Amino acid sequence: MAPSIGTSVPRVDGPAKVCGSARYVDDLVLPGMLHGATVRSDVPRGRLLGVDLDPAFDWTGITVVTADDVPVNAVPLIESDQPVLARDEIRHAYEPVALLACEDRLRLAQALRHVTLRVEPLPPVLTIDDALAAREAIRGADNVIKRYRITKGRGGAAVEGCEVVVRGVYETGWQEHVYIEPNGMIGWWDGDTARVEGSLQCPYYVQKGIKGVFGLPDDGVDVTQAVTGGGFGGKEEYPTLVALHALLLAKKSGRPVKLVYGRQEDVEASTKRHPSRVEIASGCDRDGTLRAVSIRVLFDGGAYVTLTPVVLSRGALHACGAYRWEDVTVEAVAVATNTPPNGAFRGFGAPQTIWAIERHLDRVARTLGTDPVALKRKNLLRLGDTTATGQTLKESVGVEECVEKAMAASGYVEKRERGPVVTGRTARGVGAAIFLHGAGFTGSGEKYLKGKVAVDLLPGGRARVRTGSTDIGQGTETVFRQIAADGLGIGVENVDFAVPSTANVPDSGPTVASRTVMVVGSIVDAAAKELRARLEAEEKARGATRSAAWERLAADPARATSLVQYEPPPGVVWDDATYSGDAYPAYGWACDVAEVEVDLDTFETKVTGFWAAVDVGRVINPTLCAGQVEGGTLQAIGWALTEKLVTKDGKILNPRMTNYIVPTSLDAPPFTTTLVEAAYSRGPGGAKGVGELPMDGGAPAVAAAIEHATGLVLDRVPMLPEDLFEASVKGGAR
Amino acid sequence: MSVAGLALHPFSTPKTLDEALALLAERSARAEKTVLLAGGTDWFVERHVAPAEEAGVLPLVVDVSRLDALRGIAVEGETLHIGAAATYLEIRKDARVAARCPLLAATARDVGALQIQARGTLGGNLASGSPAADGVAALAALDATLLLRSIRGARRVPLAGFYTGYRRSVLAADELIEAIEIALPPEGSPFAWRKVGTRQAQAISKVAFAGLAVVASGRLARLGLGMASVAPTVALLPATRALGLSKPLGEVTDADVEQAVLADVSPIDDVRSTAAYRRHVAVRLAQRFFGELRAL
Hints:
By secondary structure, chain A is of the alpha+beta class.
């Protein structure tokens, strides 16, 4: 059987999605089902005095749920500080306060207009600076959610003794996920068993939330993933809240309840990428050898803790970029504000700090009068080097090859030497970014997760993968079939993928952190290979053909299934107390080159070419892998150039696709993607993670290209035409 | 909030223009509100964010998109006649428009994207009165005349006299826009169309600029300008037009153009852009057009 890994097996979920037969949560109808809706606050901070139902409105057939109906009113997460429904306190402008359900959607929409919240407004904390100033305390005395400190060598103080010292401040704004399908869940009760089906990334996260709030055991909760139209991290923690709301309405009404957000509600209320400010002081030799760096990372966590501590952690761990530094201090702080909680989003804190360090090294290069890529190449991490946390890189460092390939494919060096090309009133330039992304959970995370996967032998020579890792459009179903097929030595068409449901699949850990292929894929691989060994043993012992052995094992419940738990690689040591050690088992590496054309009158930036060379360890499916790179890069280009969330007094002014501007296919540049394979010994076939990596490099590469084309230096994303115009007014425009 | 209440709207599909006009006349006499539905690309989208409908207070929605009298594109003599309910797709595919009025063809290609172009109409763009209307900017540069009709009869209103303020016009409650008439410029007349949006498609303009000129021996014999998103209504830039017609092209300097355009526009900061940026882009696009004309 020719191996399936390395071939572009077509996406198994593709035909149903393209033909429209795939059933998303909004397509599902249960008998007796009601529609649900959420009543939200409209001030960012205040004391909730009461929820009033208009006595003139006919409330017949409308179920109303308030905080009084919630058994344990706290969403279980890192800190369980977020209420399921607000009771006394309003902490952001879209805080859920009450829930309504009705069979008729129009009456439901009308009823929403007849609920009034009595709120005494309080002065809100809306920005990082507001929070740090702590004139209003909304969390502890200092509004700080979490702090980390990473030190290496003599620490950041060593900067001051260096030959060349460069300082800079770099900022990023919110980013909305804009998955095609907004959040949605159906919840119902089967006696005492809670059941939900909906759009989600992590069925076991949702299960944990329901268990905590309703006080149920594992087998009292069944969470099933419906076909999911994209997530990008936006369906990591948020769907738990939607599921809880649907179940509360279902419990009170005694009927199944479907709660599906419209786009506007989804943009307003659900999580977004953390806004950031990163302050860097670095020291290097006159020849460009980097020596010391002192970095302060500030993230806006929003109204509740949610996942902010881990997002901040990843941001801090990526803050030094793909480079060697002898002396390091990274001080990372996340603060609370009265804005909707920010959360998981592809890249998970790293895009913000990679943006900062890449822009900073561009600034260092400008100071030294050298090309940024030449400077960065000189200082790249290599095998045997140690990172800021003291991790020694022992294998799978393909960054130098990525840089070579991206340089060659893009003609970067020649284009930079030639200088910007100005034709009439347009200027063309190129820029690059070099970066890394840790694959899998940070530090000791995978040890605690204990991810599990089951592979079953089925009659008729078929096999089935059962895993809690979901396909949200990125191709999990397809690549897991490939890995299992090769492990078993059968054709990929003979492998099934079980619908992820907590009743039916083991907990593989969440579908996040670029861990699906590298970590969970390796468990799939181990389970499949274990079954293959069983088959071989059965063949030897009973002297039969492979297919006879297969059918015998498949018919024997005791031997048909291999359930394997992840074994973290030996020798990976992490110390949470000192924030030192092996931060990630492996890193993906990449080099991006962007070419842009800037209209010197309107300051519109068009990305005219994009070259990405990405070290993914091993390519499981070339089409899907390149698709991850190109899709992630386009998402980064949107963050860089158009995606600006406009807010006023804590409210979002552009919560619609007509005014929150994501790129269209016409805005996508022609991509040239090169996949590099510096194998990681513990990944399936050598594979590492790729999902998040491409989100990290697009923005700094585009910024460097704009700088090359126009001479305008931008240190904040997004870089709208208005921002280029402003920068040009301040000086420096061509 | 919801489109759940769409079905609550009283709805009418008149078969003929006369029937539609009679209905409008009846309702306006009783001071009842009517929504004329052409492509619906604004109205339907707005339903999503409008408060949930309550029966009894809703306007009558009258679908005029299939009235033959409002459809069709014709050239009569040197006048291009476009039905108010002709779609952008029909306009961009029309060979006569492409040959004789390429400015309008270029605009039609840039509006929204294919789905919007298949439904959206110039009549709807005019009637909804958005200052960001791309189609209206082009019609301004073409100095279009609007043919308005009611049971009282027809009247012709130049675009320059159509709007009275932000989303307000001289269109009476019993009137509809039947057609747009454009005095065709000579073939090959120079024109400019530039939509400064936020992305390559599906974007509402931050600024849109349309220009049309007839040049004879170094002077402008005709100059039309239109600009979207720089004033409470689509701007016709009268000072800039007057400047262009006042002296030989070679004597019109960039500084003159800047001064005139700044007198003509009054942009605001909003969710899509800033006043300062819009002023800058308005000036630069006009200067570019004058530069192109000088270079002819």
